[in-house]
Amino acid sequence: MKEQQVNTENDLVVVCKQLKTLSGFDSHAFNHLLEDTTASTVLRILARFSVSLNEAIPALERGSNSGESEVVWKAAHKLAGSAEMLGFKEFGKKSKDLSWQLKQTDHIGDSGEEVASYIAQARQLSSHLENAFPNQKNYLS
Hints:
Elements: H1 2-19, H2 27-36, H3 39-66, H4 69-86, H5 89-103, H6 112-132
């Protein structure tokens, strides 16, 4: 048990150090979450968010390619709250704004470039999380 606690603390140190290098990361939000719960729980939430992000990217691409706004807004909506809670404020706000905007219409239409930019941000965040949190699979159960 003590070894697991040490690993969790080591993982948290590595993750925090890496996340602070990410543009748009709000360390205050992340630290606030750490104050409210355990390091292990925060790492589980982060690992689950990473999985959700990786699952959302193909849906976002599908919706973008087909022009179906519902597919995109639902995927973006799913990511919004967790992103903000974990400190990815800019991505969370973009998720929320895009979700709201696309929910108003059936087809992506003039929002195509914005959707493409959002997908690129999602891919970039996913890649950063993979690098920042190499042991994330240990926190998925």
